[in-house]
Amino acid sequence: TGGINAEYGGAFKPRSSLSMWSITPHIFKRTVFLPKKIIQKKSRAISPLPSFRSTRIRFYAKHYSPIKPGSKIAKARQARDNIASSKRESRIEKRRGTPVELPDFVSSKRLASLLEVRTVDVLKVLIRMGEVPKSSEEYLDKDLVDIVVSSDEFGRIPVRSARSQLDRYPRPPPEDPSKLPPRPPIVCVMGHIDHGKTTLLDALRNSNRAAKEAGGITQRLGAFPVKLSSGEVITFLDTPGHEAFTKMRARGAEVTDIAVLVVAADDGTQEQTMEALDTILNAKLDLIIAINKIDKKNANPEKVKIQLNSQGVEIEEYGGQIPVVEISAKMGTNLAELQDLIITQAGLLDLRADPEGLADATVIEVHTDRFKGIVATVLVKCGTLKIGDYFVCGQTYGQVKKIFDWKGLPMKSSSIGIPIELSGFATSPAVGDMLLCVESESKMKAVFNYRTEAFNRREKETFLNN
User: Fold this and answer.
1) Secondary structure (DSSP) of 391-404
2) In this predicted model, what pLDDT tens digit does every residue of 239-252 receive, in sequence order?
3) Which of 131, 257, 295, 340 is most enclosed, with most CB atoms within 10 A?
4) In whole angstroms, what is the distance from residue 96 CA to residue 377 CA?
5) For residue 298, what are the β-bridge partners?
């Protein structure tokens, strides 16, 4: 290499520090690199190497120069893109109306492969629907996948694989709910800490729960029914007011029909008040504003209404549709008016459910009892839950051993919309899991094994993708 370096002005470096930028393209094509020496491939004379800067400028000018619109190259590329686009459209049209078998867990990239389209085509449909996945490897919801597959862009018929039929899914909505009996409304009470939320619930159920809790602050989510003098029943959910328990509050909103936002008349709207309001609006719940503590000397309900209106809450007094009631949970003022408002809103929603068949329920609260073992508070959405029923719940399973009402009294079966406690879980479920009853023990084991296998497969694929 020393002779070559001397002949061509020292352009070549030793192999240990040789970089591609130290050799011009026309020299690179005429040389062959071997472990110990460089052999010239052609015998004809080579012009001296140009400077590194001029070589770089020519290299970028050759490979990265912009194409002028209307030029031959631009027209050729446009024609090529048009041909590729027409081929893609023809392939989609050929497969329109044909079934496509879908696995249980599918990402947008995998879905594009099954539909034989580009990943960007699937992402465009998702973005237009308002669903923006974090990446093309993120798993999509089953209902969302079915909508994408059957959309106007693809027009395919989604078909679940045979193995997915082993799972147990919640019941679909009834075709004609008017034939079903009514169910109690489920009301979630939210608000800022120390705005009287728990005191309001104590007044409604005539129990001093706040005095039993640390500092009078609710420590966990609970549920209880209230029977009115008219015979109608309202189920209340008590959610924590701490900022750290925002996720628990959001889980409580997932199973509710109506939300009551408690605001203190002497304190006004606070940060947690607005967080609770955002949770309610995102869950698309019917909202009732309860201005509490009107019995205090410094109470100013009008100021609270102005604050809410400035935050975009359209209350009825200012021409909106959100009702407002002024109450005093401590003195029991206007509580009957609040209950009547809830019943009126529930009547407009026309809440109904089917009490027949296997039960579908939602886990509201989980704790471990010294004598009962793992105990979960659940709300039955449809069907009837009985002692001895087999069930699957998230990543666990079990058989109903005992059922208790909200007062701790034993029961033989449950009612729709009424919170109950039950024991018999193999392992602890997660709050928000769906508890789904099955026909037999063999069916329960088959569903659990299928879910375990699917969960492990999904975890493995996520690990490999990351």
Assistant:
1) EEETTEEEEEEEEE
2) 654 443 444 445 44
3) 257
4) 47
5) none
